[in-house]
C-alpha cells in the first residue's frame, strides 16, 4: 500500500504541471494546448513503443479500443476542458474544483453496483470513509474560500467568464471521474500486463486523435490571421512546455498512476488524486511569488490529514459486507 501511495504522489507532482501551462501561454487557445500536449505525448510514446513492441503486440483489438476511449476522454477532452477553464477563471478556482475529484471518485466507486467489482475490491464502509471525505472536503473549502476572495478582489467585473470556467472545470471533473475508474478496472483485470506497456499504448492511441484535432484546427486558427501559424506567438516556449508536460505529466505520470492503480483499491486510489491538487496549488503560489494565507495552510493540512486517514481504512470483503447487511 505504501509503495502504491508513493507512486500516486509522484503522479500528482507531475500532473500538477498541467495547471501551469495555460497560465504561461495565455495567447494559445485551449484546443491548441490540448492537441499540442498530446501530439508531444504521442511522439514521445513512439520510440517507447518500438522498444516495447513485443508486449504491445500482445494487446488485443479490444484492448486498443479501450486505450483509444481512455485517451479521448481522460487525455484530450479532459485537458481541453481544464485548459479552457483556467484561461477563463484563472488558475486557483479550477484547481479547487478539480480538487473535489478525490471525493467524487470515492463516492462514485463506492456506489458501483457491479458484484464482480465488489468481490474484487471489497467496499469501504461509509462510516469509515466519511471522516476522510469530510477532512478532504473541508480542506478544499478552506483553500477555495481564500482563492475566491482573491478572485473577487482582482478579477474581472464580468462574471460570465468565471461562470464558463466553473462549468468547464465541472466537465473536466466528469471526464476524470470516469477515467481512473475505467483505467483501474482494466489494469486490475489484467494483472499480467505491464503498467508501462499500458501507458505507452495510451500514448500511441492518443497520437492519431491529436493529429486529427490538429488538422481540424488549422482552418479555424488561420481564419482572420488571429493566430500565428504553425506554432503561435511564442514557439520556443510552446514547444518546450508541450514536450515537458507530454513527457512528465502524460507518459511518466500515467505510468506512476498505473503502478498505483494496480496496488490500491479504486476508492482509495481515487482519494490520492488530492496530491495533484496540492502540487498544482504549490506551483500556482510559486508562479505568483506569494505565500499562501493562513486559511490556505489550514486547508492544505486538512487535505493531507484526509489522505493519511484514508490510508488506514481497509476495504471490507464482499462476504463480510453481506454478513453485516
SSE string: HHHHHHHHHHHHHHHH
The secondary structure category is mainly alpha
> Largest sheet, described in full?
none
Beta strand count:
0
- Give the proportion of residues in helices: over 70%
Low-confidence stretches: 320-325
Q: Residue-averaged pLDDT, rounded?
A: 82
> DSSP helix count?
16
Task: Work out the strand percent.
Answer: under 5%
Radius of gyration in whole Å, from Cα? 20 Å
Q: How many domains, in number, for the residues?
A: 1
- Amino-to-carboxy terminus distance: 27 Å
Shape by Cα distribution: globular
Question: Could you explain how this protein is built, in words?
Answer:
- The chain has 325 residues and is mostly helical.
- It starts with a helix and ends with a helix.
- Helix content is 80%, strand content 0%.
- The protein contains 16 helices and no strands.
- The longest helix is centred in the middle third of the chain and has 30 residues, at 160-189.
- The chain has one domain (2-324).
- The protein is globular, with a radius of gyration of 20 Å.
Amino acid at each position: 500500500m505504501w509503495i502504491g501511495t508513493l507512486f500516486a504522489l509522484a503522479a500528482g507532482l507531475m500532473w500538477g504541471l498541467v495547471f501551469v501551462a495555460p497560465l504561461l501561454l495565455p495567447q494559445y487557445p485551449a484546443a491548441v494546448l490540448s492537441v499540442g500536449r498530446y501530439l508531444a505525448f504521442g511522439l514521445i510514446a513512439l520510440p517507447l513503443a518500438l522498444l516495447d513492441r513485443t508486449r504491445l503486440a500482445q494487446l488485443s483489438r479490444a484492448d486498443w479500443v479501450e486505450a483509444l476511449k481512455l485517451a479521448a476522454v481522460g487525455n484530450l477532452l479532459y485537458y481541453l476542458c481544464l485548459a479552457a477553464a483556467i484561461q477563463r477563471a484563472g488558475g486557483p478556482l479550477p484547481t479547487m474544483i478539480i480538487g473535489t475529484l478525490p471525493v467524487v471518485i470515492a463516492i462514485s466507486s463506492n456506489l458501483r453496483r457491479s458484484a464482480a467489482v465488489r468481490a474484487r475490491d471489497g467496499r469501504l464502509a461509509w462510516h469509515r470513509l466519511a471522516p476522510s471525505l469530510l477532512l478532504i472536503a473541508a480542506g478544499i473549502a478552506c483553500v477555495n474560500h481564500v482563492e475566491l476572495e482573491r478572485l473577487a478582489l482582482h478579477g474581472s467585473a464580468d462574471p460570465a467568464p468565471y461562470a464558463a470556467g466553473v462549468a468547464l472545470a465541472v466537465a473536466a471533473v466528469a471526464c476524470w471521474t470516469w477515467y481512473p475508474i475505467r483505467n483501474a478496472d482494466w489494469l486490475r483485470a489484467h494483472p499480467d500486463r505491464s503498467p508501462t506497456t499500458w501507458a505507452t499504448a495510451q500514448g500511441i492511441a492518443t497520437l492519431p486523435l491529436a493529429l486529427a484535432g490538429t488538422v481540424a484546427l488549422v482552418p479555424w486558427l488561420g481564419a482572420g490571421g488571429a493566430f500565428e501559424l504553425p506554432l503561435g506567438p511564442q514557439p520556443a516556449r510552446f514547444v518546450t512546455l508541450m514536450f515537458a508536460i507530454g513527457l512528465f505529466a502524460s507518459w511518466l505520470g500515467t505510468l506512476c498512476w498505473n503502478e498505483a492503480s494496480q496496488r490500491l483499491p479504486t476508492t482509495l486510489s481515487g482519494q490520492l488524486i488530492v496530491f495533484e491538487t496540492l502540487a498544482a496549488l504549490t506551483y500556482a503560489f510559486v508562479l505568483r511569488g506569494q505565500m499562501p494565507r493562513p486559511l490556505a495552510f489550514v486547508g492544505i493540512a486538512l487535505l493531507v490529514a484526509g489522505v493519511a486517514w484514508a490510508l488506514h481504512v481497509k476495504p471490507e470483503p464482499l462476504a463480510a459486507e453481506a454478513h453485516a447487511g
